[in-house]
Amino acid sequence: ENKENEDPPSLQIAVGGEPDPDYFRFQRLNHLGGTDAFLLEPLFSNEIWDFLGLPVSKDNELACLETLRAECLATADTLTATPHTDDPLGALLGQVQTIERNALKATLDWIQRDVDDLDSKEYYQQRRLKDLGLDTAWSADEAQWSGSRTPGGVDW
User: Fold this and answer.
1) Separation of CA 7 from chain center
2) Which range is least confidently modeled, 47-51, 84-88, 103-107?
3) 138 backbone dihedrals φ, ψ, rounded to 5°
4) Residue 16 in contact with residue 44, Cβ under 8 Å?
5) pLDDT at 84
6) Distances (CA, A) of 139 to 62, 127, 130, 136, 150
7) How confident is the model at residue 56 (pLDDT cuts 50, 70, 90)?
8) Among residues 124, 114, 17, which one has the least CA distance to residue 66?
9) Which long-range contacts (CB under 8 A, 24 or more apart) does 18-22 make?
10) What is the structure's pLDDT at 30?
11) What is the pLDDT of residue 42?
12) What number of helices (H) and strands (E) belong to the chain?
């Protein structure tokens, strides 16, 4: 198989825009591990892509953001430090690289804001507990039992 003619994987970024949601789905899948690995069970195979559209866990989300940060920094290192202004094509290259630097900087700023916001995100476990109605404190003194919280209240 000749891989020389294949385009390398890429990520499109823009000034003021967030990275592609499918990029984050892929990175969340790529970084699944530890207590999050249960999502890879066959039971969830038909639903995993939907699960990955939202944050899975704080550790997983941080790993995704760090991967994106590393990719942005590596790309920034490939840009020439000074624009080529001695010819029209070089000047155009300089303008394109300035736009690329601005997009990378905006993405790095977005990543930092997202890292700073990790504690305020709702992760899979919280969403699942909420879906099951188990996101509130339970007390044995509750006057009303809901069907899902009644001990032994399974209706076979």
Assistant:
1) 23
2) 84-88
3) -105, 140
4) no
5) 64
6) 35, 21, 17, 10, 11
7) very high
8) 114
9) 18/110, 19/68, 19/107, 19/110, 21/53
10) 93
11) 74
12) 5, 0
Closest CA to 58 of 126, 123, 145: 123
Token pair 């736009």 is at which residue?
A: 99
Torsions phi, psi for 53 (to 5 deg): -75, -15
Amino acid residing at 72: C
Percent of the chain having pLDDT more than 70? Answer: 73
Task: In whole angstroms, give the CA distance from residue 30 to residue 63.
Answer: 9
Q: Write down the H helix ranges in 13-57.
A: 21-30, 48-51
Residue 121's region, left for phi above 0, alpha for psi from -120 to 50, else beta, is beta
Q: Please report, as a single letter, which amino acid is at residue 84.
A: H
| Token digits of residue 20 | 């592609």
> How far apart are the C-alpha atoms of 71 and 80, rounded to whole Å?
17
Distances (CA, A) of 98 to 15, 70, 82, 121: 11, 19, 10, 33
